[in-house]
Specification:
Layout lengths: L1 H13 L17 E6 L2 E7 L4 E5 L11 H8 L6 E6 L13 E3 L2 E4 L17 E6 L4 E5 L9 E7 L2 E4 L2 E2 L13 E7 L4 E6 L5 H9 L4 E9 L4 E3 L4 E2 L8 E5 L2
Antiparallel strand pairs: 1-2, 2-13, 3-17, 4-15, 4-17, 5-6, 5-9, 7-8, 7-9, 10-11, 10-14, 12-13, 12-14, 15-16
Length: 251
């Protein structure tokens, strides 16, 4: 009986958390809500006016692999976190494999390789960036131009939406399905982050951004490791080690 009980507890600990409250639910708190799209639920985080930062390592330059570690590094600033999400692909040590800029400092240069394994090299890939004046953009890697006014940037791939259209490389609802997360910029210039609550195809995930989220350009961030820290709704995913993290702070 003790062995059975232990197995039940272990399975419960590995279970993904319940999704955020439904979109429009007045009891919901914070910038993250649940949205039903094409029969599947997604958690959407949109917070106009928040300060977006990229966090990757602690003061000793050790890679942060969890929101717990991030919270410890932030110290008193952790109380101002609106939400955080894994943001970009990484190597076995948790370091970014593409462009990474944090507070204006380039930690890793742009990766312009077009051939290679994994989703990062599905073309075109792209960059999510935030400039010093707060303007957010998603651009194709081929269109990226270095600039001193870029405060935050993370590179990933593939692009989900390009100039208002779903990436033509995607099937409408292909067989490759994972819990996925991504980012787009809507018509008001606000970055919109999305995470599927269950495995989803690239095609459906891209249509979410091109359709109800109203993003002319959107970028895939990662899959299977997709994680969210949503303090207002008591969620802090911790089921797998992650890499770079986008953090939205209250102004």
């Amino acid at each position: 009986m003790q062995v059975v009980l232990l197995l039940i507890l272990l399975l419960a600990a590995c279970k993904r958390p319940d999704p955020a409250p439904e979109m429009g639910d007045q009891a919901a708190a914070g910038p993250c809500r649940s949205l039903l799209f094409e029969g599947q639920r997604f958690t959407i985080c949109r917070d106009p006016g928040s300060r977006i930062e990229l966090h990757m390592a602690d003061r000793q330059n050790r890679a942060l692999r969890s929101f717990v570690a991030l919270e410890q590094v932030l110290g008193a600033r952790a109380g101002k976190v609106r939400f955080a999400m894994n943001a970009g692909m990484f190597d076995e040590a948790g370091r970014p494999i593409g462009l990474a800029i944090a507070e204006g400092r380039e930690v890793r240069g742009i990766n312009r390789r077009t051939a290679g394994g994994g989703n990062f090299h599905l073309q075109p890939n792209g960059v999510f960036l935030v400039r010093e004046d707060g303007r957010a953009e998603v651009v194709r890697t081929g269109d990226y131009a270095a600039s001193r006014d870029i405060r935050v940037a993370t590179q990933s791939g593939p692009m989900l939406v390009i100039d208002g259209k779903v990436n033509p490389r995607f099937d409408a609802d292909g067989r490759s399905r994972y819990v996925r997360n991504g980012v787009g910029v809507d018509a008001e210039g606000v970055p919109v982050f999305a995470l599927s609550d269950a495995p989803v195809s690239f095609g459906k995930f891209a249509r979410l951004f091109a359709g109800p989220l109203g993003c002319r350009n959107a970028l895939y961030l990662d899959g299977s490791v997709s994680s969210l820290w949503d303090p207002a709704n008591g969620r802090m995913d911790s089921f797998v080690p992650i890499g770079p993290m986008i953090v939205a702070f209250a102004p």
